[in-house]
Amino acid sequence: MTYKQSRRIFLQKTALLTGGLFLGSHFPDIRTLANDQENMANTVRLGIIGSGSRGQYLMTHINLIPGIEIVAVCDNYQPNLDKGVEMTGGKAEAFNDYRKLLEKKNIDGVIIATPLHLHAVISIDSLKAGFHVFCEKAMAKTPAECLAMYNAQLETGKILLIGHQRMFNPRYLKAFEMINRGQLGDITQIRAYWHRNNDWRREVPETGLEREINWRLYWDYSEGLMTELGSHQIQVANFIKKDFPRRVTGTGSINYWHDGREVFDNVNMVYEYSDGSSLIYDSMISNAHYGYEEQIMGPKGTMELEAGKMYSENPPPAPGILQLLNNIEHEIFDPLPLGGKSWIPETAVKEKGEYIYEVDLEDDGTALEMEGFAQMIRENRHSDVLLREAYYAAIAALLGNMAIKKGEVVTFPEEYIL
Amino acid sequence: MKDLVIKGKWIKRELIVLTVLFLSAVIINVIGIVKHDTRWIEMLSQLHVVFILTLLLYALLWLVRLIIFVVILPFRKKNK
Fold it and tell me: How many beta-carbon contacts under 8 Å exist across A and B?
């Protein structure tokens, strides 16, 4: 499915959602989002700070969207800067220092796709310089930095959107709506995981740049799996629970990639919400069999958000004729039992489930999120709900690492509750 | 090569057989609905299953006919 098709479905879906009270206020006004001609007339000019792999990924999506122009690109690594400028057809102005870019007056907003340790300082500087900001997840490297970013938004009134693209993914929106309507009952447990089988390394062309290029592997730059992957899924869990985790405990280690990295190559967490329900989370990079998934469980059913499927605890019975034929088949072909069953194994229910969203989407929400950010700029409308989501997800991810390092249960600090 | 002649009588007989099998499948559907206490709308919604079952029964009937034919064949030759 093309981006245009995904977009049309998103608009239809969001139009339905805005009719209710649940999600509508979180999103830009879709009536204007849908108006391409008007958007072209009000082109949003953006600067990219950090045109590495993630920055380039975002630029690829931005290039699909009418009414957004990238006028400046900044990166302190020359190959990335050159590539970034090339992706704009050579039109964008190039900068090595983001502070120089922030002196420009013809830019409406900036997109920050730098290593995690720079998110807070660049975001705050950008907001204070009068720019709207889209910053990649996770929000920041410490809870204090997250709070400082949140306060900078309050102080400046500018838009601050953090890159949790699942909030713009039609499949997730549909699932959120169904869960909110109570189709799973009260959510009693969420299980989420993100498994890969690679070393998470990038090629380092020059000596001395190992830490700058493979920044995800070192504590000075990154918080590892918890912020790079976990924060996405914690955000989804928080949004579903309409809460944030009050306590967390877990383990983590380097158990496979003994290659000089510092961050854990596997993490295993238990987060507890205020109602006693839990998010059980794990991430590893030495086995990719299960991929990634969020499993939402309640007394009425289960949802797998990545697979986009729902499994009812009490599925409707099969048609009578099929049950009858099935029984006949079992009577003929099943082996005769020697005695009555004294114990039935509680193995997983073999139900195929139903798709919660039939359409196969090409976009994971990133392009829609970019378009949403541009529209928020046009409307000068900040979403506090989306920012709080990112804030609590980031802090929960960071607390996870703290719990692992301390080897104890960590409680969400009072001073960081908004 | 010998021409095969399909007589109207044979077609009529096969159509009757098919009708009987279809009605049998419909009855099986009714039994399924009653026995498993499912909805009567399945009389319509499960028609595709009824048709498939009819064809299966018809194929089964042909198999039985074939077996009978193979068993009887030596006796026929003897009588001739």
Answer: 43
